[in-house]
Design a protein that fits this description.
The complex is a heterodimer of chains A (449) and B (174). By secondary structure, chain A is α+β, with helices and mostly antiparallel strands. Chain A folds into two domains: 67-252, Immunoglobulin-like; 274-448. Chain A contains nine helices and 20 strands. A five-stranded antiparallel β-sheet of chain A has the order 1-2-3-6-5. In chain A, helix 4 (71-77) packs antiparallel against helix 5. The longest helix of chain A is centred in the N-terminal third of the chain and has 35 residues, at 20-54. By secondary structure, chain B is mainly alpha-helical. Chain B has two domains: 3-70, Rna Polymerase Sigma Factor, Chain: A (Orthogonal Bundle), CATH 1.10.1740.10; 80-170, Winged helix-like DNA-binding domain superfamily/Winged helix DNA-binding domain (Arc Repressor Mutant, subunit A, Orthogonal Bundle). Chain B has helices spanning 3-25, 28-44, 46-52, 55-70, 80-93, 101-119, 123-134, 139-146, 150-170. In chain B, helix 2 (28-44) packs across helix 3 (46-52). The longest helix of chain B is centred in the N-terminal third of the chain and has 23 residues, at 3-25. Chain B is globular, with a radius of gyration of 17 Å. Classes of the chains: A alpha+beta (449), B mainly alpha (174). Chains A and B meet through helix 1, helix 2, helix 6, strand 5 and strand 14 of A and helix 1, helix 2, helix 4, helix 5 and helix 6 of B.
């Protein structure tokens, strides 16, 4: 290990100074930002009186127009002047506000076009026609938004007739930029143009989920219509996007979908053929359980993450289970958790190479509590690996089948037993089970037994 | 925050932060973006920076959170070839080690292999390794920044080293 330590020190030692021109640019940006903030604060004061006077008599959209930055202004604030100009010239303003769950979301507006942003990326050349949507998100209780709030929200355009869990911002080469300005989070999302589909219903979905969640939205397979799930407790807002239907192009849309599907099919093959590592990015799925024990509230939070897969020349690995557990509560002495009564999952242990390292039982004691404000954590990981001599190694579909079997069998039957020892000597036992895993949605529900 | 204060911040921590951004993103354009966004955010949150008592940790925390929240905004599709080319450039730009040419070549090859190996690890291991070895942070500070117990940080460092060791052994290094 000492050798590895030395090796890592040699390989990763900080040797890169930021280039001088980068620091110069940075200083210029600091100056612009500072002066911009001052201007904006003055503007806020000037319009404040007008907003108060108009509040009772103006429609909601007009109020929103006063209260929030316009899409153009939001883009400029986020340092994309080119996009600001595009919003001004060709954009449509929506200014619709909906409050749901913990958040109040205002759909500010959208614009579509080719090369209308200063930001670029690897897929921009292949898919230059892009749609940009600006939203303003606030906390419903009036407190300031934080980066943590932002990371919990998923904003995406959806298209009638296309399965939303397959076709959303994540699969359509999307990204976003955003920042908190005066307590409001302004987010401008972008993805391949949805204007091609303007002859269908288009939606802007906002949910308090890290990724698209089938719990938050329903999809009617027959009509292709997306609706918010009324039973969902949280934020699941669906705005209508009113794009100019004359700009729809069914033929081009069909070609785009084919291109997208071809790309998805080819991606895995090419990476494997090239011997390159592939990171399949899947946002963590977070589930949370809160229960009261005596006078103490105990929160159990599970992040499922790192469903990644990679190849080397002669080895490939896939993480099939990765739970990051947080337990938060006062007066907890220690916690012991056991998976499946001592068996990590129901699959043959040979496949789960990480089992030996992490075991199927973990204990968390109060020692880790000191720096953490009543928060306990543990990580539980299992993954399987294949080697060059395994027939599965070179067979993508066989690999996929094994992966699916592992996910559906393993997670479906995984049970977590928590033994929480309170400081006053009480022991609280909780059983939680993880159900309903599928390779497509990676959707796990946590229920207390 | 005055220009002088920002300059001092950059002078004191710029190298570690920028090196961390370089390692984490794997390409110069994204590293520049992440570095800039980190400093700009720090300037915006200067009152917290001043009160943190540990500016380096605070800056690293900002960098990690920006990366985690916005990595889709950056060009995140890591391409191994692109990364290797970038790493080679890093090595070319690295200060002279005073080694003989042959020793230097071996060292460079090893450095490239280690960097490529780390990129194969799950990101949570990468972040901890970069924070420990590149940003030269203590385990306690990493735990504070990532809101993770010290034990988990130690476990990730240990696990990361083991996985890297396996990776190198498979390729007849070590």
């Amino acid at each position: 290990m000492n050798d590895m330590d030395k090796l890592l020190k040699a390989a990763l030692a900080p040797e890169q100074y930021p280039p001088e021109e980068l620091n110069d640019k940075l200083m210029r940006q600091v100056k612009v930002k500072e002066s911009g903030e001052m201007r904006w604060k003055r503007k806020s004061l000037i319009i404040a009186a007008a907003v108060v006077a108009c509040l009772l008599i103006v429609p909601a959209s007009a109020y929103a127009a006063y209260k929030y930055l316009q899409p153009k202004e939001a883009a400029i604030k986020l340092q994309d002047d080119k996009l600001g100009k595009a919003f001004e010239k060709d954009g449509t303003e929506a200014m619709e506000t909906v409050t749901d769950g913990l958040y109040k979301v205002t759909y500010l507006g959208d614009v579509s076009g080719e090369y209308i942003s200063e930001r670029t990326g690897s897929s921009w050349d292949m898919y230059p026609e892009r749609t940009y949507v600006a939203v303003a998100i606030e906390k419903a209780d009036g407190t300031d938004m934080t980066d943590e709030d932002n990371s919990k929200l998923f904003v995406t355009p959806l298209i009638q007739g296309l399965k939303p869990w397959v076709y959303n911002i994540a699969s359509m080469h999307g990204s976003y930029m955003g920042d908190v300005i005066d307590g409001v989070f302004y987010r401008i999302i972008e993805c391949d143009s949805v204007e091609l589909f303007a002859d269908r219903d288009l939606y802007l979905a906002v949910s308090d989920t890290a990724f698209f969640s089938r719990k938050a939205f329903d999809y009617d397979e027959e009509t292709g219509v997306v609706t918010p799930n009324e039973a969902y407790e949280g934020t699941n807002i669906l705005f209508d996007m009113k794009l100019d239907s004359s700009k729809s192009d069914p033929e081009k849309a069909k070609a785009y979908l084919k291109q997208l599907n071809d790309e998805w099919n080819l991606e895995g093959e090419q990476n494997k053929a090239n011997g390159r590592g592939e990171e399949t990015e899947v946002k963590p799925v977070t589930q949370q359980e809160i229960f009261a024990e005596g006078g103490n509230k105990v929160t159990f939070r599970m992040d499922e993450e790192d469903f990644n897969r990679w190849w080397a020349d002669d080895k490939s690995a896939r993480t099939v289970l990765s739970y990051y557990l947080d337990v938060e509560g006062e007066d907890i002495e220690s916690i012991k958790c056991t998976l499946n009564q001592g068996e990590f999952c129901s699959n043959p242990a040979d496949d789960l190479t990480e089992l030996k390292t992490y075991g199927n039982q973990c204990s968390i004691t109060g020692d880790d509590l000191k720096d953490r404000n009543h928060l306990y954590s543990a990580e539980l990981i299992a993954r399987f690996e294949t080697y060059k001599d395994d027939p599965v190694f070179n067979d993508n579909s066989a690999w996929g089948k094994r992966e699916h079997d592992m996910l559906s069998m393993g997670i479906a039957s995984t049970k977590l037993t928590l033994e929480i020892n309170m400081k006053d000597g009480r022991t609280v036992n909780k059983n939680l089970s993880f159900n309903n895993a599928s390779d497509e949605s990676i959707d796990i529900s946590v229920s207390e037994e | 925050m005055t220009t002088e204060e920002i300059n001092r911040l950059i002078l004191e921590y710029g190298k570690q932060i920028y090196s961390f951004c370089c390692n984490l993103t794997g390409n110069k354009a994204d590293a520049d973006d992440l570095y800039q966004d980190t400093i700009l955010k720090a300037v915006e949150l200067r009152h917290r920076l001043d009160g943190s008592g540990n500016p380096k940790s605070y800056l690293m925390g900002i960098a990690v959170r920006i990366w985690q929240n916005r990595k889709k905004k950056y060009a995140v599709r890591q391409n191994i070839i692109q990364m290797v080319e970038y790493d080679e450039k890093l090595i070319q730009d690295a200060p002279d080690t005073g080694l003989q040419p042959e020793e230097q070549a071996i060292r460079e090859e090893m450095v490239l292999m280690v960097r490529a190996g780390i990129k194969q690890l799950p990101e949570k291991f990468q972040i901890v390794l970069y924070m420990y070895y590149t940003a030269e942070m203590s385990i306690q500070d990493i735990g504070r920044v990532l809101h993770i117990p010290k034990g988990t940080i130690k476990s990730r460092l240990h696990k990361g080293r083991n996985l890297l060791k396996e990776y190198l052994e498979v390729r007849n290094y070590e």
